Automatic annotation (TrEMBL), chain A:
SUPFAM superfamilies with a match to the protein in the record: GlnB-like
GO biological process: regulation of nitrogen utilization
Protein name: Nitrogen regulatory protein P-II 1
Pfam family, one: P-II
Residues with the O-UMP-tyrosine modification: Y51
Gene Ontology MF annotations: ATP binding; enzyme regulator activity
Record flagged with keyword Phosphoprotein: yes
Lineage of producing organism: Bacteria, Bacillati, Actinomycetota, Actinomycetes, Actinopolysporales
GO terms under cellular component: cytosol
UniProtKB/TrEMBL annotation, chain B:
Localisation per UniProt entry: Cell membrane
GO molecular function, one term: ammonium channel activity
Transmembrane segments: 6-27, 39-57, 99-120, 127-150, 170-197, 209-229, 235-258, 270-289, 295-315, 327-350, 370-391
Swiss-Prot/TrEMBL keywords: Ammonia transport, Cell membrane, Membrane, Transmembrane, Transmembrane helix, Transport
Family: Belongs to the ammonia transporter channel (TC 1.A.11.2) family.
Protein name per its UniProtKB record: Ammonium transporter
Pfam families xref list: Ammonium_transp (PF00909)
Region named Disordered: 421-446
Length: 112, 446
C-alpha cells in the first residue's frame, strides 16, 4: 500500500482528477495548501508599495494506491499537473502499513 | 422658489449622502479583513454624530449671520435645531433653505469620515466619535463659513449681510470644497497620525488590502455621488451645474490614466488599487475648480493630480508617519493641486468667470488660492492636533497593542466581518438579556 501525495497548481486540479479517474483511481482527498519552493513566491504592488508574497496557493492531493499502480499514478499526476512554469509542485510516495474502510472494516486493497 | 432647482439640490444631497458609505467601502477594502468593520463604522459614526450636530448648531455656525463682520464664524444659535427654517418663505437663492441645509450637512459628514482613513486599525471607536464631534464643531463649521458663506447683497450690489472671509474678502475660488473639505480633512489626518502614532509593526508589517473589489465598489459610489457634490454645488439646475458635471467626469478619467501611467512606468503594472486611487485624486482635485475651468483645463488638472498623488502616497515611508490609507497623499495633496491650479487654469469662459495665469489673468488669482489653502491647512492642523491630544490625554484615543494584533473589529465591536462555514461557535444570550429574562420569570412566579 502506498500513499501518493501531490502538491500542484490549483488550476490543474480538474485535469488531474480526470487523469486519475481514467487510471482507475477510485478516491482521493484534496485540500488547499500554501507554500513555496526554490523560486520563492512573487511580488505584488499596492499604491507603489511592494509586498513579497512567500506562500502561494497550492492544492494538495492524496491518493491511496496498491503498489502495482504507483508508477502509473505518479506519471499521470506529473503529466496532468504540469504547466511547464515555475511552481508546478512535487509528488512523493510513502509506504502505508494498513488501510481500513471505516464503514465495513475491510482492510488494505479491499478498502481502496 | 424654483421647483427644478429644488429637485436638483435635494437629489444632489442624496447623491452626496451616498459618498459616505461609498467611502466606507473604499477604505474598508484597503485594510486587513480583521479591521474592515471598524473602518466602515468610523464612516457610519460620522453620519451619526455630525448629522445631529449639524441640525443642532452646525448649520447655524456655518451659515448663520456673521459674528462681528469678521468672516470667521456664523452665529451658532441663530438657527438652533433648524426649527425657524420650516416655513415656505425660507429660501436660499431659489431653493428652500432646509434643502440647502441638508445638502451642506452631507459635506460636513463626509469631511469628518474622510479623516478616518489615516488612523485605520488603531483608534478606539468612542473617542473617534468624540473627536469627530469636537472637530466638526471647532474646525469644520468655522471653515465651512469661511469658504461657503457668501455675502448677501442688495440690488445695488451693497453687502447687506457679510459672509466668510475666504469666499468674499479673499475671493479665492473653491467651488465645492477643495480647501474646506479636502485640505481640511488632509491636515486633520496628518495631525491625528502624529498624535496616535504608527500601527504596531508599521511599516514592516502593514497587511495587504483585503478586498480590492470593495475598494472599486467604494470608488464607484464616490464618483457617482461626487456629481452631486460638484454639480449640486451650483445650487441650481442650470449651465453651471452642467459644466461642473462634465469637468467632474473628465478630470477624474484623466487622473485615473495619470495614476496608472505612473505605476506602469515605475512598477511595471497598472493596478486596480492605483486606478481606484487615481479616481479619487481626480475627484478631489477638480472639486475646487469644477466651475472655473474648461473641460480641457479639467483634463489637465486631473492628469496632473493623478501623476502627482501616485508618488505622494509614498511620502509617508520617507517621512515616517503612518497615514494608513493615504488621506494626506490623496486628499491633502490632491486638494492642494486642485486649489492652486485654479490660479493657473481658471478661464473667463467658465461659469466662475475669472482668468488665471494661463489665460492672461496674471498671478492675482494664484496668490488668493495659495492664501486660502495655507490658511485652512494651518488652522485645521493646529486645532486638530489640540483636539486629538485632548482626547488622547483624557479618555485615551489609541487602542492597545494587543487589540491591534487581535483585530480591532473584535475588540471594539465584538464582531467579525467574514464567516466561512458554520464554525464551531455556540450561541448564548448576552448577560443583559438573561438577566432580564430571569426577572420576568421571577415576576411570573410571584
Amino acid at each position: 500500500m502506498k500513499l501518493v501525495t501531490a502538491i500542484v497548481q490549483p488550476s490543474r486540479l480538474e485535469s488531474l482528477k480526470e487523469a486519475l479517474g481514467k487510471l482507475g483511481v477510485l478516491g482521493m482527498t484534496v485540500s488547499q495548501a500554501q507554500g513555496y519552493g526554490r523560486q520563492k513566491g512573487h511580488k505584488e504592488f499596492y499604491r507603489g508599495t511592494e509586498y513579497e508574497i512567500d506562500f502561494l496557493d497550492k492544492i494538495r492531493v492524496e491518493v491511496l494506491v496498491d503498489e502495482s499502480g504507483v508508477d502509473r499514478v505518479v506519471d499521470g499526476i506529473v503529466e496532468a499537473g504540469r504547466t511547464g512554469r515555475v511552481g508546478d509542485g512535487k509528488v512523493w510516495v510513502t509506504t502505508v502499513d494498513t488501510v481500513v474502510r471505516v464503514r465495513t472494516g475491510e482492510t488494505d486493497v479491499e478498502a481502496l | 422658489m424654483d421647483s427644478g432647482d429644488t429637485a436638483w439640490v435635494l437629489m444632489s444631497a442624496a447623491l452626496v449622502m451616498l459618498m459616505t458609505p461609498g467611502l466606507a467601502f473604499f477604505y474598508g477594502g484597503m485594510v486587513r479583513s480583521r479591521g474592515v468593520l471598524n473602518m466602515l463604522m468610523m464612516s457610519l459614526g460620522s453620519m451619526g454624530v455630525v448629522g445631529v450636530l449639524w441640525v443642532l448648531y452646525g448649520y447655524s455656525a456655518a451659515f448663520g449671520s456673521d459674528l462681528g463682520g469678521l468672516g470667521l464664524l456664523g452665529s451658532p444659535l441663530e438657527f438652533f435645531g433648524l426649527g425657524g427654517l420650516l416655513g415656505a418663505d425660507q429660501l436660499s437663492g431659489t431653493v428652500p433653505t432646509p434643502a440647502f441645509a441638508a445638502f451642506q450637512a452631507m459635506f460636513a459628514i463626509l469631511t469628518v469620515a474622510l479623516i478616518s482613513g489615516a488612523i485605520a486599525d488603531r483608534a478606539r471607536f468612542g473617542p473617534w466619535l468624540l473627536f469627530g464631534g469636537l472637530w466638526a464643531t471647532l474646525v469644520y463649521f468655522p471653515v465651512a463659513h469661511w469658504v461657503f458663506a457668501f455675502d448677501e447683497t442688495d440690488a445695488a450690489g451693497h453687502v447687506t449681510a457679510p459672509g466668510g472671509w475666504i469666499a468674499n474678502r479673499l475671493a479665492a475660488i473653491d467651488f465645492a470644497g477643495g480647501t474646506a473639505v479636502h485640505i481640511n480633512a488632509g491636515a486633520a489626518a496628518l495631525a491625528l497620525v502624529l498624535v496616535l502614532g504608527k500601527r504596531t509593526g508599521w511599516p514592516r508589517d502593514m497587511g495587504k488590502p483585503h478586498s480590492l473589489p470593495l475598494v472599486v465598489l467604494g470608488a464607484g459610489l464616490l464618483w457617482f455621488g461626487w456629481f452631486g457634490f460638484n454639480a449640486g454645488s451650483a445650487l441650481a439646475a442650470g449651465s453651471t451645474a452642467a459644466v461642473a458635471f462634465v469637468n467632474t467626469l473628465v478630470a477624474t478619467s484623466a487622473a485615473m490614466l495619470g495614476w496608472m501611467l505612473t505605476e506602469r512606468l515605475r512598477d511595471g503594472h497598472a493596478t486596480t488599487l492605483g486606478a481606484a486611487s487615481g479616481v479619487i485624486a481626480g475627484l478631489v482635485a477638480i472639486t475646487p475648480a469644477c466651475s472655473s475651468v474648461t473641460p480641457l483645463g479639467a483634463i489637465v488638472i486631473g492628469g496632473i493630480a493623478g501623476i502627482v498623488c501616485a508618488p505622494a502616497v509614498g511620502l509617508k515611508y520617507r517621512l515616517g508617519y503612518d497615514d494608513s490609507l493615504d488621506v494626506v497623499g490623496v486628499h491633502l495633496v490632491g486638494g492642494l493641486v486642485g486649489t492652486l491650479l485654479v490660479g493657473l487654469f481658471a478661464s473667463g469662459a467658465a461659469p466662475a468667470g475669472v482668468n488665471g495665469l494661463f489665460y492672461g489673468g496674471g498671478l492675482d488669482q494664484l496668490w488668493r488660492q495659495a492664501v486660502g489653502a495655507v490658511a485652512v491647512f494651518a488652522y485645521s492642523f493646529v486645532l486638530s492636533l489640540m483636539i486629538a491630544w485632548l482626547v488622547q490625554k483624557t479618555i485615551g484615543f489609541r487602542s492597545g497593542v494587543e487589540n491591534e494584533l487581535e483585530g480591532i473589529d473584535e475588540t471594539e465591536h465584538a464582531e467579525t466581518a467574514y464567516h466561512f462555514g458554520d464554525g464551531h461557535a455556540s450561541s448564548r444570550r448576552s448577560p443583559v438579556h438573561t438577566a432580564g429574562l430571569g426577572r420576568e420569570l421571577e415576576g411570573n412566579n410571584a
